[in-house]
Amino acid sequence: MYNGLLHAHSGLRWIVLILLLAAIFNAFSKKKSGVWSVKDKKISLFAMSFVHIQLILGFVLYFKSPKVSFAEGFMKDDVLRFFAVEHVLLMVVAIILITIGYSKSKKAATNAKKFGAIGTYYLIGLILILASIPWPFRNLGAGWF
Predict the structure, then answer these.
(1) Parent domain of 56
(2) pTM of the full predicted structure?
(3) Would you call 66 exposed, middle or buried from its count of C-beta atoms within 10 A (0-12, 13-18, 19+)?
(4) Which end is more exposed in the chain, N or C (fewer Cβ atoms within 10 Å of the end residue's Cβ)?
């Protein structure tokens, strides 16, 4: 079960990244002259929904993973510290920002403010997500999938 969840979490990352990029690109390209449509709402909603699904999978893995250990000295081990503290903390902050951006876009009075909220908050969330993914070149024991 653990390996299946790990592969699902790793594979879903690509869908999340693509959806976030699509939502950000859509928001910034339509900010000046675009009209908020059902398509725009769906893009941002799908991006936020998949981010939340990824969060649920991540929390299940967090409590089942052998990489997450709070044994004595775990803060001195780069890999254990990354997965126990850094990864989960930055991801939760990013998801909170994405959720705030979606919420602000629903409450915004003008279309420009809707697109601005999605673009800004989703972009900051994406930057935090990219910074906290255990990329293979970071030598944290994770692969591309």
Answers:
(1) 2-136
(2) 0.90
(3) exposed
(4) N
